[in-house]
């Protein structure tokens, strides 16, 4: 348990401390933007892998039994989460997490939500939280889901303070909740190249996971549970 808590604390710190503008600017100034993003991405992947390894090493303590409908929720939510995650990372977005955050012209995904990466993590965590009724999964996916929600709130507050009078103008065509700006008539639905790439990548990863990739990595086949 101590190892799991330590790995989770490292993961949360890794995604909280560099988000502080002064620290991020200093790291970018020292390393350069491309090197910083590359090292940060590798460190994030390594930290997440350690979190999963530590969680899987914990004893299995069941809270609720598996059911087909729970697996179907995860199967439906994960492709959407992957799409949001990939589209968010590769689209220009000055208002949230992105590899292209420094660009002022926001990508089409921002019209759906200005926090696509965090929504991707939240939907992924929610799907797995429901589908896995054991203590370690509740702790893991519950913590990651709560982190995503807190991340949105912190990013909103930080950007509102940073942008000042420009906040209302820059956020006019976007919303925190997916599709809220479109439903409110403040943003049109459009599709750009990053969204198409994200759709293809999400589809390929989903097919691979359902074809045995998930079972190979984590020892659980979602389709088997969904047809149980």
Tell me the Rg in angstroms. 18 Å
Poorly predicted runs of 5 or more residues: none
Strand content: under 5%
Q: Structural class from helices and strands?
A: mainly alpha
What is the helix fraction of residues, given as a range?
55-70%
The major pleated sheet works out as: none
Mean pLDDT: 88
Tell the overall outline. globular
Please provide the count of β strands: 0
What brief labels describe this structure?
228 residues, mainly alpha, 11 helices, globular
Describe the 3D structure.
- The chain is mainly alpha-helical and 228 residues long.
- It has helices at residues 2-14, 21-31, 33-56, 68-90, 109-112, 116-131, 135-163, 167-170, 180-183, 193-218, 222-226.
- The chain is globular and about 55 Å long.
Structure in a nutshell:
This protein has 11 helices and no strands.
Write the layout of secondary structure elements.
Layout: H1 2-14, H2 21-31, H3 33-56, H4 68-90, H5 109-112, H6 116-131, H7 135-163, H8 167-170, H9 180-183, H10 193-218, H11 222-226
Helix pairs in contact: 1-3, 2-3, 4-6, 4-10, 6-7
């Amino acid at each position: 348990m101590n190892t799991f808590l330590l790995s989770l604390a490292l993961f949360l710190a890794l995604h909280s401390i560099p988000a502080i503008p002064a620290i991020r600017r200093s790291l970018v100034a020292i390393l350069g933007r491309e090197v910083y993003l590359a090292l940060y991405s590798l460190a994030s992947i390594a930290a997440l892998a350690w979190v999963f390894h530590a969680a899987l090493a914990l004893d299995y303590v069941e809270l609720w039994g598996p059911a087909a409908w729970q697996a179907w929720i995860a199967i439906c939510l994960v492709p959407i989460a992957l799409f949001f995650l990939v589209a968010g990372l590769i689209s220009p977005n000055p208002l949230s997490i992105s590899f292209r955050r420094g660009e002022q012209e926001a990508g089409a995904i921002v019209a759906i939500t200005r926090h696509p990466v965090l929504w991707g993590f939240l939907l992924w965590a929610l799907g797995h939280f429901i589908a896995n009724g054991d203590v370690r999964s509740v702790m893991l996916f519950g913590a990651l889901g709560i982190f995503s929600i807190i991340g949105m709130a912190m990013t909103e507050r930080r950007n509102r303070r940073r942008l000042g009078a420009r906040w209302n103008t820059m956020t006019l065509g976007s919303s925190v909740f997916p599709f809220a700006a479109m439903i409110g008539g403040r943003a049109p639905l459009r599709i750009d190249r990053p969204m198409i790439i994200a759709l293809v990548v999400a589809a390929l990863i989903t097919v691979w996971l359902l074809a045995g990739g998930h079972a190979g990595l984590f020892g659980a086949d979602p389709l088997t549970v969904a047809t149980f």
